[in-house]
Amino acid sequence: MVETKSSLAENFSVTRGGPLHRLLVRLSYAGDERQLVVGRTLLAVLITWLPLFVLSVVDRQAFGQQITIPFIRDFAANVRFLIALPILIMAESGINRRWRILVMEFFRSKLVADADVPLFEALLEKTNRLRDRALPEILLMVVAFLPSLFVIKTELLMSGISSWHVTGIESGELSRAGWWFNYVSAPFFRFLLLRWVWRLCLATFLLWLISRMRLYLVATHTDMAAGLGFLSQGQKAFSPIVFAGGTVVAAQVANAIAYHGATLSSMTYPMIAYGVIAIILLVAPLLVVTPLLVKVKRKALLEYGALVTTHNQQFDQRWIQKEQSPDEVILGHPDASSLTDLGSSFTVIRQMGIIPIDKQDLVILALAAALPMVPVVFLATPVDELVRLVLKMLG
After folding, report:
1. pLDDT tens digits for range 126-141
2. Annotated domain spans of the chain
3. Are 161 and 260 within 8 A, CB to CB?
């Protein structure tokens, strides 16, 4: 079987577009090479975290006991800009590669007929044009900056506590580090996070366009998704983004427990809520192919049902009603094998899902959301309880 070639598919990317990407190209920071990825990451840290540290040191709010939360002991700020932010940037290469493979799979598996390749490429071009438009990223920048204009408190769960964000609890005025956080660092981080939401929307849009094409889907495919099971790999590729968001939530909860008197039980709801919302956001894009899979399954149930009925009737007449030659024996006869094969095919159709994702992928996404919460559990659990728990597990 000759594989169809498409330069558009081989170079497809959900990230290489928009004003920020074009700026990085001009600055020679764009690309998937390791040194360029590291360069972009360091640049982002220099813009967001380093000024906060320097300004906090200058204002004597980085260390010490004079305020409740000095900068160096702020879980939320340090995790956000030293862990989550680098992940948001470094994840681009892997997600790009995974989605390029996913797009090429439509050709490799012959889901798209050779005659429909020009149409498929037109859909890729349409997605690329939307990706490259400036307006979406401009709107994202506005949305990312709005909280800094209308929200007085710069951090959640931190009201009434002296921290490096403000010059004093009574005045409520932003410190120099607090000003940089509120008007530079936080909007920058929110923009990158919203940009990933936009990219997820682009991927969803592409899947929706493809689902409207004439695809060669077979309901008996053992992936239980008529041959579209590989689409879940595209969503699983976003698990680093889920992990990055989880670290931010976990760090906020850690701050609330360490400095605001919150308990682990009182913070359980927001931690669980994040995991549920993250999984829903990543599974939801696959729903665009659900109508197509429902149609394929319904059609196959009728067609294969009729075929199985006809075959079983013939089998019954030949072997049960004894219409076959007396010399024939069923042992080793192909009729028995075909009966089993048809029955297995019909069972696959009945078990076929209408959302192309399996339990293993859901587990991976759930782990990506839950793992950042583990250190919070250790932080909130007394040492003696942890020791008893470990000894109980060992015993």
Report:
1. 999 999 999 999 999 9
2. 7-295+355-394
3. yes
